[in-house]
Amino acid sequence: MLSYRHIFHAGNHADILKHLVVSQICHHMTAKEAPFFYLDTHAGIGQYALDSQQAQMNKEFKTGISQLLELKNAPEPIKRFLKIVKDMNPTSNLKLYPGSPKVVEAYTRQKDKMHLCELHPKDYPTLAALFPNKRRANVEKANGFAAVRAMLPPPQKRGLILMDPPYEVKEDYKTVVKALAEGHQRFSHGTYAIWYPVLSRKQADSLINAVQRTKIRNTLLLELNIRDVNTDKGMNGSGMIIVNPPWKLESEAKEFLPVLKDLLQEDNKSSFQLRWITPE
């Protein structure tokens, strides 16, 4: 199935958590001189026009990035991410929202390399046109999970692998864990980031437990729920599972997760999690 189109959801609460975490990881990656490699298994179209017909249909960005831009006295990680958004929107009108590739591009140097995978026949050409320089970013119409096996370990010896499938088929929940285990076996000191939706507590916990069963060490969990996870309102929240996170990420998340919860909550049962699935 290739029916999922992220443009309908761009800039929502789940995007904010995912892209804020990716931004912080890249911030720490570029604190060192050595080059790094970025692999995006489900890159989408790279950036999203919020004034498009698709984005305007549900206007999920209105309760997401639009609210975040109004935040005063934001923690540094949030300020850093918002600068990327503001740089894409030089006027006061919010028209563009960065996908993961554009967030990472804001940090990459000439020596760093991006490999972006997108299988959707309509999204791939748009992504390829956005990143025409193959020396900077290689865009491939391919199964991103297969790229985890094919591209690792990278020549750069440092890297971030983002796996954020749409989970439109239940098999994705198993495949993402399998890809993590295979990737870690090939490139054990790489940083892996798995995004997942919280459609129900049971389904999310099943994925978390499956990651725990891999026994991969040094795995951190960040999760943000904007409403009661037991409500039947679609995606109540989302989370990030980070293998080999930057050592400051936990303390930074302690600061920005409560801010996101208070700002984006839709009921009084909003919540967040920050814990180690497996310690170092």
Structure report:
This protein has helices at residues 13-29, 53-58, 65-69, 76-88, 100-105, 123-130, 144-151, 171-186, 201-213, 249-264; strands spanning 37-40, 47-49, 96-98, 113-117, 137-140, 159-163, 191-198, 219-225, 237-243, 271-278. By secondary structure, it is α/β, with parallel strands linked by helices. The chain has an 8-stranded mixed sheet with strand order 5-4-1-6-7-9-8-10, sandwiched between helices. A two-stranded antiparallel ribbon has the order 2-3. Helix 1 crosses helix 4 and helix 7 (144-151) runs parallel beside helix 8.
CATH homolog superfamily: Vaccinia Virus protein VP39
Percentage of residues assigned to helices: 25-40%
- Biggest beta-sheet profile: 8 strands, mixed
Strand order of the largest sheet: 5-4-1-6-7-9-8-10
The count of DSSP E runs of length 2 or more, i.e. the number of strands, is 10
Q: Please tell me the overall pLDDT.
A: 94
Shape: globular
Provide a count of the helices.
10
* Terminal residue distance: 37 Å
In what range is the share of β-strand residues? 15-25%
CATH topology: Rossmann fold
Topology summary:
Layout: H1 13-29, E1 37-40, E2 47-49, H2 53-58, H3 65-69, H4 76-88, E3 96-98, H5 100-105, E4 113-117, H6 123-130, E5 137-140, H7 144-151, E6 159-163, H8 171-186, E7 191-198, H9 201-213, E8 219-225, E9 237-243, H10 249-264, E10 271-278
Parallel strand pairs: 1-4, 1-6, 4-5, 6-7
Antiparallel strand pairs: 2-3, 7-9, 8-9, 8-10
Helix pairs in contact: 1-4, 7-8
